[in-house]
Amino acid sequence: MKKRTLLYSVTPFDPSGHRLKVRLTIAQPDPDGQELSMPAWIPGSYLIRDFSRQIETIQAFSRGQPVAIAKTGSHTWRCAPSAAPLSVEYTVYAWDLSVRGAHVDESHAFFNGTSVFLAVSGQTQDVCHVELCPPPHTKKWKVYTSLPEAAGHPRAAKRHGFGLYAAPDYDALIDHPVEMGTPQVVQFTAHGAEHEMVFTGVIPKLDLARIAGDVQKICAAQIELFEPQARRAPFLESANRYVFMTMVTGDGYGGLEHRASTALMASRNDLPVRGRDDAGAGYQTFLGLVSHEYFHTWNVKRIKPAAFAPYDLSRETHTSLLWVFEGFTSYYDDLMLLRSGTINENDYLRLLGKVISNVRRGAGRLKQSVAESSFDAWTRYYKQDENSPNALVSYYTKGSLVALGLDITLRHATSGTRSLDDVMRLLWQRFGRDFYQGGGQGIAEDAMPALIQEATGVDTRDFIARYAYGREDVPLERLLPLQGIAMNWKAASAAPALDARLRSSHGETQIATVYEGGRAHAAGLSAGDTLLAINGLRVTDTASAERLLGAYQAGDEVDVHVFRRDELRAFRLGLGEPAATECVLERKG
To answer: Are residues 345 and 425 in the same domain?
Structure first.
């Protein structure tokens, strides 16, 4: 049966009011009444977002006459029966400065399709055309998206132009975010595939050439990992280019993957500027983010858990495998910086040591496995509070250490002839390469041990049971020396231990986390307390707190005054030895 075509149009008609106008035309609506829905969440961010709450107005018409439309659920609507083509017009409030939603002002417009496009029940497999329209009173804006132009159509957009774009179905439509505006842009190719980097925001003297050179190496290295012979980028089946869309702010950080693009947020202080050789550690953080999201082009956008094949965007969809899809990706993100030559081994070991330190610091790792953390992402990981380090483990960070431990185990067991790379290539060939062409099968919840053994010949059932589904620490003290790496611990500070994490903001210093079993816990201090004074001397920020504590030794007691809400409290705190919480990795010999 020939596919029908749905037509959407999107206009940032009120930039000052942060609003988009959307029109959906349905040529053949359901004669019994057309049902519509908005996704409740966006793939890659496992929390119900309720995007429908940002729809301010909605109305329907057929042949110029109003058609009744009523909401039937949190994310659903139903139009009255209509035999003629149906038009649905609605406005979306777009003021979410994040990688997940939509953000419009006088400088740019950015949106994810999950925030903007209503799904048409019964027609989600049909072709979708999207007309992107400029805001009023501007002729300078251009369009940046991996969504293909509607080739052959008389209203087809030209490169970076407004006009008509096309997607083969609704799932593809919502997987190509759009940026409109006047950003700074640079292009490069990696193994013949075009890539585009788009930076929105105020970024003086941005060193685009340096960024493009480094990211090109990272992309090439990842293509070579998955396709060592063909060296073909995975997105070419659905788009003719890959687009990195970066919103630059004072302190932003984050990313969200899509099938041929990624939305990023970065601090301008993390980006290199022309004329300065040393870009700093922040630039490595940015490159690690880029590497992470690009790796997702294979791992989670095409290699998926069975629970995500296909996505059900109307409800929470649970899987215990995010430690594979986010944890393995977190392992490879910095590793690909090393392999591509954008950082050296000392930088890599420093980054890896920070991850190990972060994981080992939290008591939550002994209470929750990364498989449990994966399953509970919706209700626990994405809803963290002040006690989360004591109660949760991250499937990103500990998941990356599980991947590291697996990689070393595989290399050691096979005398270096097999590694986690072989596992990733098998997953790609079996589940990912033809995902969008062949019906899309995902990885079953219990399949990883057998797949690893098939790829490498190594039985890792015990390893996975203990460290992924169990709560034991990955035995890196034993494994890292097998790769010639010494692992040591040192105190991050010479000051006696408070066993709490502090944060300063707006002239106040608060206790952000009290670590379970530590000195602050024993004394009765709590997260949220505003730290005022130590032994009668004022605390002005986190650095002053460390200086005041540095005047004492382990075993000393100090009086600590805090505000808890609006009540003054006093506590007697016994100080402990500076905790050896910082992992230091070094190449032996």
So the answer is: yes
